Amino acid sequence: MRRKTVSAPPAAPVESAQGLAAFQPGDRGFLQKYGTPFSILLGAAIIAAGIYFSKNPFSFSAADPASAPNRMEVSADDDPVLGAANAPVTIIEFSDFQCPYCRQFWRDTLPQIKTNYIDKGLAKLVYRDFPLTNIHPSAQVAAEAGECADSQGKFWQFHDAVFARQDEQGATTIAFTAEDVKSWGAEAGLSATTFNECIDSASNRAEVLKDFQDGVAAGVGGTPTFFVNGIAVEGALPYIQFQQLLDQELRRVE
């Protein structure tokens, strides 16, 4: 099934399994050689970004069924849910605890979605694991630890602690260890002995793998990827675009 997706702009990309390649201007005075055309291109990019973010890429006409976005059937499984079970809009997030763009979404966009939609019973967020282990070697143990935290009823406290501690160290991919994960779990209020034993046992490996396989089956190729009532959204988009889609979905289900 083909699906309509909306990809993030360069400022908020999705992190794919192929990794990211940084632009290298070279050793011969890049700005001196290309400064003027580069400035022109930068100005054009800023104008284009303003136009891009002022439009609603999710909009469609009720009179034109062909313009409606495709919806995927994506299971929430038994994964952690933030919000009311009967909320009319379901956001399923496939995420990676070591992904800097997943952390960007957590930091810049999720707080506003939570305040304006989740806390008001209008939407709920389901977290599913999609660890990109080839570029994020600690993502697997963090995902398994998240399941351990969920078994103690403290997934979201752990979720916030993992992203917050990395965010304190910078905006890029942050290296961490299983011992760091255990420490963050303790900070989140988890029973340390039970939590640490759960991590060491690797008892949640199959559950994390199931999430990953479900994501692949739904067409997920990088993180973060969201399904908003089945509409695929790729990347850490700014709040305004999530707002447009959420409002559209609320009008649709009225």
Descriptive notes:
By secondary structure, the protein is an alpha/beta fold. It has a single domain (71-252), classed as Glutaredoxin, CATH 3.40.30. The protein contains eight helices and eight strands. The strands form two sheets. The protein has a six-stranded mixed beta sheet. A two-stranded antiparallel sheet has the order 2-6. A hairpin with a 2-residue loop joins strand 7 and strand 8 (231-234). The radius of gyration is 20 Å and the shape is globular. The two termini are 27 Å apart.
By CATH's scheme, which homologous superfamily applies?
Answer: Glutaredoxin
CATH topology: Glutaredoxin
CATH class: Alpha Beta
| Order of secondary-structure elements | EEHEEHEHHHHHEEEH
How is the main sheet built? 6 strands, mixed
Q: Treating each run of at least 4 consecutive H or I residues as one helix, how many helices?
A: 8
Proper CATH architecture: 3-Layer(aba) Sandwich
Structural class: alpha/beta
Oligomer state of the chains in this structure: single chain
The strand line-up of the biggest sheet is: 1-8-7-4-5-3
How much strand content do the residues show?
5-15%
Short description:
The chain is α/β, with parallel strands linked by helices and 254 residues long.
